[in-house]
Amino acid sequence: MVLIGVALIIIGFAFRLNSLVVVTVSGLITGLIAGLPIKEIITQFGEAFTTNRYMSILIVTLPVIGLLERSGLQNQAGHLVSKIKAVTVGRILNIYLLIREVGAALGLNSIGGHPQTVRPLIAPMAEGAAEAKYGEVPEEDREEIRAQAAAADNIGLFFGEDIFVAVGAILLMKGFFDQNGIDADPISMALWGIPTAIFAFIVHSIRLYLFDKKLDRKLGSKMKKVDSGSKKDVNV
Predict the structure, then answer these.
(1) Which of 24, 155, 169, 228 fits a 20 to 30 Å CA distance from 216?
(2) What DSSP element (H or E) covers 136?
(3) How distant is the alpha carbon of residue 40 from its chain centre?
(4) What is this structure's pTM?
(5) 60-69, 101-110, 137-146, 219-228 — which one is most confidently predicted on average?
């Protein structure tokens, strides 16, 4: 009977009801079915909120980013990059990949991320670089540029954070080795993450270079056709 709370969550989400209300009502009903006093149920809610109160700080960033985007942060980022002719999509993302990987290696995971950095800054800057070089960029290619921006963030964080000795992945591996009777030093594991991170940076840099070449073949050829067509019109 206690599992009725799980069913209520599934039903509430299926009907797209307010998630906070659904989870709260489900928790209350589950507690009442389990025979807990209403006071104890509310106490459990309070303790859970107090224990995880720092997680709510992340929620505050969402309206801040929304206000920045509404004020034109994305447009300004793209406009700024579009003035620099030497910048390409691959070079922008390669620089961010390096910053993200080095920052994660130093334990600075919060300097990047999809909602706070990639969406409002990096992706618009990459799109601006493409517009500066090719003019109007089709929506399909814009989506691919955004995907490449998100991938640069993921790869930089994933391989960079393994160099930081206090990261969860290192501690998880340390605990796993200890359980299986294998003596492993966290510092040694972190140091062995350096060549892996360097190799990952080189490989993804090559991928970004090839992505630039792909855009050149696809969008650069269209620009040549447009230029040749305009020259013919002028001659006529």
Answers:
(1) 155
(2) none
(3) 38
(4) 0.66
(5) 137-146
